[in-house]
From TrEMBL:
Domain HTH tetR-type: 1-61
Family annotation (InterPro entries): Homeodomain-like_sf, HTH-type_Tx_Regulator, HTH_TetR
Designated name of the protein: TetR/AcrR family transcriptional regulator
Domain of life according to the entry: Bacteria
Gene source species: Cytobacillus depressus
Molecular function terms from GO: DNA binding
UniProt cross-references to Gene3D superfamilies, sorted A to Z: Tetracycline Repressor, domain 2 (1.10.357.10)
Amino acid sequence: MMKKQLIMEKALELFATQGFDATTVQQITDYCGISKGAFYLSFKSKDELILAIIDQFMMEYTSDIDHIVRSPENNLLYDFYYTTFHSFHKHSNFAKILMKEQSHSFNKDFFLKMRHYDTLIDKSLLLLIERLYGKGIDPIKYDLIFCIKGFMHTYSQLFLFYNSPLDLKHLSQSLVEKTNLLAKQMTVPFISHELFQILKQPLNEEITKDQLIEIIEEKIADIEEPIEKESLILLKQQLLNPTLSPAIVKGLLENIRNHSECKWVSYLLRNYFEV
């Protein structure tokens, strides 16, 4: 395991029992069995470490959701809800800390980061809704985005504040029914296209090709698995000189999608190549 990943995993264990504020860098280094110097080679501060942990969680979730939304499967809405709540359940300890700490004073970078991921999730939700319901839902599709996010937020609290076992399949089926009813019955939209654009306007920046190449080069240097490494090399070449068919690009992205270090770059490339 890379030292940076080790620090993140061990720190998360401490944060789960003590919270962000009460956990010191010294406690983290003692728990990891490393020196403070080794810590600061990976992270400039505890705040940077916390943001890196948030990034890891949100990158994995955003990438998984985007993959489902773009998949050819028929049960898109069910798969979307099931993946969402499975992720909340899997990372419930971290989610509890995150919700608690959001009520405290957190720096500007945290709020900008969360708004950034919120915008990416909205983009995936919009594609999901358009695939499910077509053009006929255009007047209410932005309201439906907010309704789905409301379901996600409200029902996720069942995993965060209650210890009783929950049937994820039944929950997902129930929310599919509720969402379909809203899509068919809503007649008074509130969120217009213009309002939606205004809400998302400050974070509309697209990643550049040069930035993508830089990210890919970092991953090529970091990972050892031959299939993932070779796929990244070919994807980098595709960015520089596009000669591969969309089907081959999609296959290369599938090769790297499930690697823990490649989820985010696969998401970025999927959107860049529009496959």
